[in-house]
Each structure stands twice: as C-alpha cells, then as structure tokens.
Amino acid sequence: MTAGLMNIVINIRLRQHYDDMNRMKSQQGMAAIFTVLVIGAASLILARSAAFLSMLSLDTSFIIDKEREAEYLAESCIEESLRRIQFDNNYAVTDLIWMQDANSCQITVVGSGPERIIEATGVIGDYNKSITAELSINNDQIIINKWKPNE
C-alpha cells in the first residue's frame, strides 16, 4: 500500500471515529435533555398536586369554621331562651327569628309546666346547625336533661 493510500485510509478511519464520537455525544445530549424534561414534568405534577391539596384543605377549614359559627349561634339562642324562661316560667315561642346581617337564628320553645323543649337553628350564610335542648323546671331552677346537636 502506498503512503498516499495509507493516509486516505487513516483519514477515513479517523473521520469515522470522530463521527461515531459525535453521534455518541449527540445521543448523550438527547438523553440529558430527555432526563431534564421528565424531572421537570414530575416536579410540575407534584407542585400542582400540592397546590390542589392546599386549596382543598383551605376549603375544608372554611366549611368547618362556618359550621362551628352556626353551632355557636344556635347555642347562644338556646341560652337566650333559657334566660327568658328563667324570668318567665310560662315563656313559649314558635319560630322566633333573630337576624343580624346574613346571620340568623330560629328558635322554638314548646311545652308547658315543668317540661320544655327548645329547638334552635343557627344560620351563618349558607351553613346551618340545629340544637335541641330538653329541660325541666323545678322550683325556679332550670335543669337541662338533654342537649343534642341535630344532624
């Protein structure tokens, strides 16, 4: 083989070697880009899931707070009815509605003599809670026999 032909063969082999190395580098670059895309997509999915769960938790807390407020309002209405019974043993009322802003309370006191039932429903916006109290009056003393939230 002549020197010129030998140089051509060596150049061809070197070129093939460099082409193979460039192809490998290109494939490694594509693998790196693909890896970054997969990790980025997974991170985005995790972030969206965390944000969704956070919003769900806030909504749940808001609902629980409003239901508690409605329950406290119903309790207050029952306590006001107890105070009125204490001043007047014959106190009875049907569907008394107390309102303030968007909040309201509906009170019913039924019964006569020593046995009474008070039902109160507290309404805070779209949320409401009802409570029933059964009581006895003995010598001007009020005894609560049963206090139960209604479902």
What report would you give on this structure?
- With 151 residues, the protein is of the alpha+beta class.
- It has one domain (1-151).
- It has one helix and five strands.
- It has one helix at residues 3-87, and strands at 93-100, 103-110, 115-124, 127-138, 141-150.
- A five-stranded antiparallel sheet has the order 1-2-3-4-5.
- A hairpin with a 2-residue loop joins strand 1 (93-100) and strand 2 (103-110).
- The termini are far apart.
- The model has no long low-confidence stretch (mean pLDDT 83).
What are its keywords?
alpha+beta, 151 residues, 5 strands, 56% helix
Termini separation comes to 101 Å
- Overall mean pLDDT: 83
Largest sheet: 5 strands, antiparallel
Tally of helical segments: 1
- Approximate shape: rod-shaped
Low-confidence residue ranges: none
Strand content: 25-35%
Strand order of the largest sheet: 1-2-3-4-5
| Secondary structure: helix percent | 55-70%
Order of helices and strands: HEEEEE
Question: Structural class, from helix and strand content?
Answer: alpha+beta
The rounded Rg comes to: 39 Å
Number of strands: 5
Domains (count): 1
Topology, pairings included?
Elements: H1 3-87, E1 93-100, E2 103-110, E3 115-124, E4 127-138, E5 141-150
Antiparallel strand pairs: 1-2, 2-3, 3-4, 4-5
Give a brief rundown of this model.
This protein has 1 helix and 5 strands, in the order H-E-E-E-E-E. With 151 residues, the protein is of the alpha+beta class. It has one domain (1-151).
